From TrEMBL:
Gene3D superfamilies: Homeodomain-like
Organism: Epidermidibacterium keratini
UniProt lineage: Bacteria, Bacillati, Actinomycetota, Actinomycetes, Sporichthyales
Protein name, entry field: Helix-turn-helix domain-containing protein
Domain of life (superkingdom): Bacteria
PROSITE patterns given in the database record: HTH_ARAC_FAMILY_1, HTH_ARAC_FAMILY_2
Protein biosynthesis recorded as keyword: no
């Protein structure tokens, strides 16, 4: 683990005092009661809270100066994933007490008991809060219909192998991008990354809809591709995800992918990329803007990948088409 705390560009509090730390914690997560031991062992390092906070999500790093209990109060309409950046701590999630440490995270569901406790000295934890509506909208897209009961994740999240390890790699990538000035802070860029984190969580961590996500049955295939293509043609300039296309087509992501493979022999993501490239090619030939302007207007946010895909498809760079 790196010695440097993550999210340093979003520092909210560095303090030896409990009050400022608690106030910022309440603001970006929830109002909470902080309980300290009678004789706390104070670290020489101050308490640290770094966080980027938006309406639908918070990504933060929390390192208290001493062991404490953090007990959220009131209504908590969000899901949480807590994983250790360094050290370890206890995380009560519902009736399960998870020891959060290297390779093991805790997932907290809305409305269930939630407490962080027994922090090893110097422990820092990354806490990702995702609004209930935000996660459930992605679940709706994956299922192809609205869920009929509240989504409930299993509390212990294993991050050492398989899908859990992939989720952790994705989370660390997002944090690393936030730690340096770049495109991720441009308008419309961060939200799709966090949406991908939510979709990855739904696929990686067991919950009460996991079996339904793996079930290939669904509505008839008639019209699925047509509705998906209409969605792509209407929304290709947006930061569109496969879950969005599936939701517009009225099917699950798996159903959509199977249908595209049958009809086109490619994935819906590849079809979307190819459609965007065709639109960009037409716009460049017509001289409808610079390479950057055309790429962004066609839904490409990474110019290097756009240029590489464009050259692979058309045999020349975008700048050569533009002349």
């Amino acid at each position: 683990m790196t010695a440097q705390p993550p999210l340093r560009r979003f520092q909210l509090c560095v303090s030896d005092e409990l009050g400022p730390f608690a106030a910022q914690l309440d603001r970006v997560y929830y109002p909470s009661r902080l309980r300290m031991p009678v004789r706390p062992q104070l670290s020489r390092s101050p308490s640290v809270l770094n966080a980027i906070h938006r309406r639908d999500f918070t990504i933060g790093y929390v390192r208290p100066r001493t062991d404490m209990q953090v007990v959220p109060e009131g209504d908590r309409p969000a899901y949480h994933v807590n994983f250790a950046w360094n050290g370890s701590l206890g995380a009560l999630s519902g009736e399960r007490d998870v020891r959060v440490r290297d390779g093991v995270a805790a997932v907290h569901n809305p409305g269930e008991r939630h407490m962080l406790h027994h922090w090893q000295p110097g422990t820092g934890v990354v806490g990702i809060k995702l609004a209930s509506e935000f996660v459930e909208a992605e679940l709706t897209g994956l299922l192809g219909r609205a869920p009929t009961e509240p989504l409930r994740f299993s509390p212990e999240f294993l991050l050492t192998e398989g899908l859990g390890a992939s989720w952790l790699t994705l989370a660390r990538f997002v944090i690393a991008e936030l730690d340096r000035p770049g495109l991720i802070e441009a308008p419309g860029m961060l939200q799709p990354y966090v949406r991908t984190l939510a979709v990855a969580l739904l696929n990686a961590q067991p919950h009460n809809y996991s079996d339904q996500l793996r079930d290939p049955s669904g509505p008839p295939r008639t019209g699925i591709v047509r509705r998906a293509q209409e969605s792509i043609e209407r929304r290709y300039a947006e930061p569109l995800l496969v879950t969005d296309i599936a939701r517009d087509a009225g099917v699950s992501v798996r159903r959509l992918q199977e249908t595209f493979a049958e009809v086109h022999g490619i994935s819906p993501k590849t079809y979307l990329r190819d459609y965007r490239l065709e639109q960009a090619h037409r716009a460049l030939r017509a001289g409808q803007g610079s390479v950057t302007e055309v790429a962004q207007a066609c839904g490409f946010n990474h110019l290097g990948r756009f240029a590489a895909s464009y050259r692979e498809r058309f045999g020349e760079l975008p700048s050569q088409t533009l002349g």
